[in-house]
């Protein structure tokens, strides 16, 4: 279901502080961000500025935020953890720097599992998983376990998994950060191509300006504030 609006995610005046002993760090100091459906947004900023924290806000992965966090028009702040989980399952996909694939499952199973959990019929899940992995050049690797795949291949499986349930928004935290530059370029280009083909929006945290420039929009986090361009 979608709310008819073109905005898939919206943050208004989002703040987050962390306190460790006597020290409080204001990591997000009033972040505003609107992501349109199908839009690819690069999130840049030096290490430790709060890119992961911002993705956690969008992914409804942590508490402790103030401000408004809307996903597909729904204000999430007052929802309970089960409702957050449901929104994550229905609308969001995640890719991390390290793939977090299940080691005892093969590539195809890693992509079909989230679909089965979401209630897809097994044949449907296998068909979609095979199509996604094939689009990423892994048609010959469906039955390989993660340990038998290269780093780039593992990240491709993680990308396919993130898209398995047709999310409206994919949140990617340094998705190619542990790959060499050449492989990172290829995997990120494939990721962007697939995301565009699926009409999914994405926010991609990265240190890589060059790759960021290939996306629709760049936002930068600096001193807890987000700026455009
Ligand atoms: N759970 C936590 N408890 C205390 N401090 C935290 C916590 N999570 C993050 N921080 C602090 O918040 C700041 C932002 O961290 P975050 O991981 O969001 O940055 P980042 O921009 O993603 O960094 P990197 O590019 O290195 O991954 C850091 O100073 C970090 O130490």
Automatic annotation (TrEMBL):
This is ABC transporter ATP-binding protein. Belongs to the ABC transporter superfamily. PROSITE patterns: ABC_TRANSPORTER_1, ABC_TRANSPORTER_2. PANTHER family: IMPORT ATP-BINDING PROTEIN (PTHR24220), LIPOPROTEIN-RELEASING SYSTEM ATP-BINDING PROTEIN LOLD (PTHR24220:SF689). It comes from Sphingorhabdus arenilitoris. Residues 9-229 form the ABC transporter domain. It comes from the Bacteria. The lineage of its organism: Bacteria, Pseudomonadati, Pseudomonadota, Alphaproteobacteria, Sphingomonadales. GO terms for molecular function: ATP binding.
